[in-house]
Design brief:
By secondary structure, this protein is α+β, with helices and mostly antiparallel strands. Helix content is 16%, strand content 39%. It has 1 helix and 4 strands. Strands 1-4-3-2 form a 4-stranded mixed sheet, covered by helices on one side. A hairpin with a 5-residue loop joins strand 3 and strand 4. The longest helix has 11 residues. The radius of gyration is 13 Å and the shape is globular.
């Protein structure tokens, strides 16, 4: 499959409960978890339909306020 450079690769969504959000996007929506990242200040889970734009669920763990 040829990809256009103008396609959106991922959309990030800040969530307050990462486990519940992953459950919703995988069980209810039917997306597949493809990657996880653990940083000093956040945890991220990437979900996607095969070959489609991904959803990145971001849970901030440092307690700071986010806009």
């Amino acid at each position: 499959m040829v990809r256009s450079p103008n396609l959106l690769g991922a959309v990030g969504i800040g969530v307050s409960d990462l486990a519940k959000s992953v459950d919703f996007y995988s069980r209810v929506i039917g997306m597949t978890q493809t990657q996880t990242f653990s940083l000093d200040y956040m945890e991220e889970v990437v979900l996607a339909f095969e070959g489609r734009t991904a959803v990145v669920l971001m849970h901030y763990t440092d307690g700071s306020a986010r806009n």
